[in-house]
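This part of the workshop introduces the protein records we will be handling. A record pairs a protein's sequence with a compact description of its fold. Comparing a sequence with its tokens is the quickest way to learn the format. The record below serves as our worked example for the rest of this section:
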Amino acid sequence: MQFFFLLTVILLLICTCAYIRSLAPSLLDRNKTGLLGIFWKCARIGERKSPYVAICCIVMAFSILFIQ
């Protein structure tokens, strides 16, 4: 159950970072290394793997609504 919550948080982090980068790219682009570089990396994953991230969001929403 805790693994499921961890996956949910990671998926939300990826989606949020990709959305923020689409609105204000300079906000995440200036921090490509270090601790804040995690957000830049999540944004890159969300941009490059967007079909897979979208499928994961749909599956996660289905499992939250109908399975739990």
The helical segments are 2-23, 25-29, 37-48, 50-67. The chain has four helices and no strands.
